[in-house]
Amino acid sequence: MGNIVDPISSIQPEERAPLVTYEDVAGRLELALTRPNLNEEEVDAACRKALVYGLGAVVVRPSDVDMAARILGNSHVALASVAGFPHGSSNTGTKLYEGRDLLRRGVKEVNLVINYGKMLSRQFQHVETEILQMSESCQQSEAILKLVFESAYLAEDLKNILCKMGKRTDSHFIETDDAADLPQLKSICKDVLKLKVSGLSTLDKFQEAYTAGAERYGTTDPFAIANEWKQILAAREAAAKQAQLETPSSP
């Protein structure tokens, strides 16, 4: 009897364009400011720092949206916030009101936590209807919708079903907290849904997730990753200049 091949682990990562510029990394990083122990001064300072670093987005608590909107303004740093956080257990009406309120106050990206209890109960129509209604609100506001789940709560078949829901409802991203999910999610989402992984802490982990197909990366300390990338780019530039100096000029 031959060896059984895992269909997910056997998927080869796609060939992606190399990371070359500062923006290739910083522009894909999302600063997560959703911890309950952050005070307003810390959120304010972190949003201003995100502007300096040119991050892709800042994800704030709903109560911090107005302050963050004043700081980020019309910059290239997208303002994001959460609906149904942290476990997706609020009822549909509450969750939809929360999402629409965020959009009205200037949020450009809604991170919708899916209802784990309904998924585990296999009440898929309930979950998909909820996603669809939020997707319609986001489309009307020209905002991005990310479907958020924690990997430990959902089995592989439920993750696959969630990806298919995201595709049917014209969502934009599937977001997991485990980079090990990326090959599986990529195999279902194809090029229809983009992938985000949260909880990354190092540039190495960023690069691994990028190779696996992720497009956005959530972390509480994107600045460390951006600084490490700056150092690598500076070293590359210095090496290139040195090589140019050492290259004999043609007669």
Q: Which structural traits does this protein have?
A:
8 strands, 251 residues, disordered N terminus, alpha/beta, eight-stranded parallel beta barrel, TIM Barrel
In words, what does this structure look like?
With 251 residues, the chain is α/β, with parallel strands linked by helices. The chain has a single domain (23-244), classed as TIM Barrel, CATH 3.20.20.70. Helices cover 47% and strands 15% of the residues. It contains 10 helices and 8 strands. It has helices spanning 22-26, 40-53, 65-72, 92-104, 116-120, 124-140, 156-168, 182-189, 203-211, 222-246; strands spanning 29-33, 57-60, 78-83, 109-113, 144-148, 173-176, 194-198, 216-219. An 8-stranded parallel beta barrel has the order 1-2-3-4-5-6-7-8, surrounded by 6 helices. α4 (92-104) runs parallel beside α6. The longest helix is centred in the C-terminal third of the chain and has 25 residues, at 222-246. The chain starts with 21 loop residues before the first helix and ends in a 5-residue tail after the last helix.
Order of helices and strands: HEHEHEHEHHEHEHEHEH
Q: What's the total helix number?
A: 10
How are the strands of the biggest sheet laid out side by side?
A: 1-2-3-4-5-6-7-8
Q: Supply Rg.
A: 20 Å
Helix content: 40-55%
CA(first)-CA(last) distance: 67 Å
What's the count of strands? 8
Give the CATH architecture: Alpha-Beta Barrel
Q: What portion of the residues fall into strands of 2 or more residues?
A: 15-25%
Flag low-confidence runs.
Answer: 1-11
Overall geometry comes to: globular
Give a short account of the largest sheet: 8 strands, parallel, barrel
Indicate the CATH topology: TIM Barrel
CATH class: Alpha Beta
Q: How many discrete domains?
A: 1
Mean pLDDT: 93
